[in-house]
């Protein structure tokens, strides 16, 4: 009889704990995963991760994980202690990782913006340079050059790269660097972690989603005397090319 009583008490305690845990999740998040290549068609059975936006976080693991239903919809529940915290969603579709916009929890029930994914391609036929700015600043050790590209993927697929430039890394955009250039650096959307210098080019290796990216390289070009000759390769269809000289006494 005592054993039955203990079992009943234990079951009651477990039931109360479950009720408390269930009751704690008071914030509801709802969103969809859609395929931008297929005119925003719903993506079913797609894993989705929820990440908290925490600065300098060493642990990048998601807070929660779920899977979309037949209509591409996903749901998360969070405790109300996370009210006013910031989050974002991610999903891995085909060969690429996709990120939803950053949002702050300011309502108990929130409808998130669609998490858009795209099908992959190995063709760069939709990659064009909308504008390129070359900024040249004369210095004591040579010409300081900043090459700024506004690059567009005008298609509806993600370009995952063609040429392999390192282990498991493929070039999605290659910026030619003149022979003799020194102190090469990168900036804009081109990050150190994903830039590979190979065969006279700085290669971007991040998948290129539809849209615009700003890719920047900087370098010093040494020269002697009063003149320098730089051979500049135009590697992509380019709509606009500007050259700026940061010194009125220098002529091109």
Structure description:
This protein is mainly β and 252 residues long. Helices cover 9% and strands 47% of the residues. The strands form six sheets. Strands 1, 2, 5, 9 and 10 form a five-stranded mixed β-sheet that branches. It has one helix at 2-24, and strands at residues 25-35, 41-42, 47-52, 64-67, 73-79, 86-93, 96-99, 103-104, 109-111, 115-117, 120-121, 127-139, 142-153, 158-159, 164-166, 169-170, 173-176, 182-188, 195-198, 201-204, 211-221, 241-245.
Summarize this entry quickly.
The chain is mainly beta. Helix content is 9%, strand content 47%.
Keyword list:
single chain, 252 residues, mainly beta, five-stranded mixed β-sheet, five-stranded antiparallel β-sheet, 1 helix, 22 strands, 47% strand
Which helices and strands, and how do they pair?
Layout: H1 2-24, E1 25-35, E2 41-42, E3 47-52, E4 64-67, E5 73-79, E6 86-93, E7 96-99, E8 103-104, E9 109-111, E10 115-117, E11 120-121, E12 127-139, E13 142-153, E14 158-159, E15 164-166, E16 169-170, E17 173-176, E18 182-188, E19 195-198, E20 201-204, E21 211-221, E22 241-245
Parallel strand pairs: 1-9, 1-10, 11-14, 12-22
Antiparallel strand pairs: 1-2, 1-5, 3-4, 3-6, 6-7, 6-8, 12-13, 13-21, 15-16, 17-20, 18-21, 19-20
